[in-house]
Amino acid sequence: MTLSRIAGIAAMLIGSTVAAQAQDRSDWPSSFTVGTASQGGTYFAYGSGWANLVADELGMSGGGEVTGGPMQNMALVHTGEAAFGMTTMGPAAESLGGTNPIAPGLEMDMACAMFPMYQTPFSVTALSSSGIESISDIPDGAKIGFGPAGSTSDTYFPRMLEELGVNFDRRNGGWTDLGGQLQDGLLDVIAFAAGIPIPAVSQLEVQTDVNIIEFTEEEQAQILEAFPVSEFTIPADTYTSLDEPARAVSMWNFAIANCDLPESFVYEATNVVMSDNDRMVAIHRAARSTTPDNWDKNKVLMWHPGAARWFNENGASIPDDMIHGN
């Protein structure tokens, strides 16, 4: 066979591959956004990171968007205003049940599971100078920041502290702003619910001395009984302020996709995130849990068909009745 003939065949093969790729992407969106949360929180750092990674790898425009967190993300993804988002299992269940405070009565069943992210620990931070070293030390009427309105922390942490008998003055805001208020003495405590290490806490440690307050065994057991959370231990190497692991509780986070997005698009986006964990860990250490074996932590949302196909091809066994459209 002549060299010219070989070159011709190669050109035909390349041309057909390019054509196939173009055909495969014919129904893809031209760009996408990922609903995250406020700046200074883990959602924003993690979500912006994986949005940029997917955009780069798939050769398209995409990025993270500042939002109010899990509750708002469920609404944005359900309506299609955001292609992707991030949520925790508690807010996801409430949204499916029509009790999302953003749109009461609306069952947000067009937000589908995409991939497991990490666990969100619930932890309390105070300035060391405050003398607050335990939940029971929190003074009556303390000014406590619970994060953005409608966030996982704002939805569940006030209830948890009420369960433990804490009487407080509730404040909301982005994590970075609340960190500044704590440092300035405008808040007594911040009740964080975010993947660790939380950027705002790490920044506080650089600027001042803080206490990372753990639950007692009795407090942890009481919270586990009353809320949809799991036991969790914050490793001692997470923060310089910790000398030993800290007892906490946590809730799983999942990436979500609008259920109407093309199967091939979500499949490829899922593959970018899940096929190389080292890249995700480089974005944020919380991504150490962004692994295929954690697919079974979703017991609430229907799976997007594209994501389900990727996981089932990579060791999962997602049942047909948990896949949207089946």
TrEMBL record:
Classification of source organism: Bacteria, Pseudomonadati, Pseudomonadota, Alphaproteobacteria, Rhodobacterales
InterPro entries in alphabetical order: TRAP_TAXI
CDD domains per the UniProt record, alphabetical: PBP2_TAXI_TRAP_like_2
Keywords linked to the UniProt accession: Signal
Record carries keyword Acetylation: no
Protein name: TRAP transporter solute receptor, TAXI family
UniProt signal peptide: 1-22
Species, as recorded: Salinihabitans flavidus
